[in-house]
Amino acid sequence: PELRREYLDGIGLFLLAGALTVRAPRRIREIHSRPGAATDAMRRLDHSARMPRLVDVERDLGAAMHEQFPVVIGGGSVGMAIADTPARVGVGRLLIVDPARLKPTSVLTHPCRPEDLGRSKAIVAAERAKAVCPEARVFAFVGTFEELPTYVLAEATHLLLASDNLRCEASVSQRALHLGIPVIQGSVYGPTLSAQ
């Protein structure tokens, strides 16, 4: 945590930390809820209602989840599915990073709709997460992880790596190690299509 704070020195305000914001890097976009009955119903939903009650744990798990700020790297077939999970447990903030757009063949492997074709994977994944958890602050970064400013990661609680790019995986590992942020990696092994 102390090392991460060094990146904030001289910046003043942190983009994703709270109510105050500074000028965002040009490709970070906050996703807003669409008005309607479904959004209203999701806002009334208690995301902690299905949290397990752990023996000898005094802490409110719903509140603990709300304090989390996961960053999902990769908005493809694995990343979109991974991004839904933090939203379902009610995280307070979520950032999804991916430079690519959905292609016609994406409909065969990604949890997306045909009308999403040509759109940014990061934005589609972020919109899906925001629909599940409208009270969360959900952001999309349309760009590579290497292009993501390091200060944006300063308050990340963990990185969820779902990239199929070795250079990206190496970059995530190096930055996570430097900043002291845990990494959880999910991927699909091509020949068997098994999740790992």
Task: Explain what the structure shows.
The protein has 196 residues and is an alpha/beta fold. It has 7 helices and 8 strands. It has helices at 2-6, 37-44, 61-66, 77-88, 106-109, 121-132, 166-179; strands at 28-31, 70-73, 93-97, 137-141, 158-161, 183-185, 188-189, 194-195. The strands form 2 sheets. A 6-stranded mixed β-sheet has the order 1-4-3-2-5-6, with helices on both faces. A hairpin with a 4-residue loop joins strand 7 (188-189) and strand 8 (194-195). Helix 4 packs parallel to helix 6 (121-132). The radius of gyration is 17 Å and the shape is globular. 32% of the residues are buried. Mean pLDDT is 80; it is low at 1-22.
Strand content: 5-15%
Low-confidence stretches: 1-22
N-end to C-end Cα span = 29 Å
Apparent shape? globular
The secondary-structure class comes to alpha/beta
Q: Please provide the count of β strands.
A: 8
pLDDT averaged over residues = 80
What is the helical fraction, as a range of percent? 25-40%
* SS element count, helices: 7
Strand order of the largest sheet: 1-4-3-2-5-6
Give helix and strand order, one letter per element, not per position.
HEHHEHEHHEEHEEE
Quick recap:
With 196 residues, this protein is of the alpha/beta class.
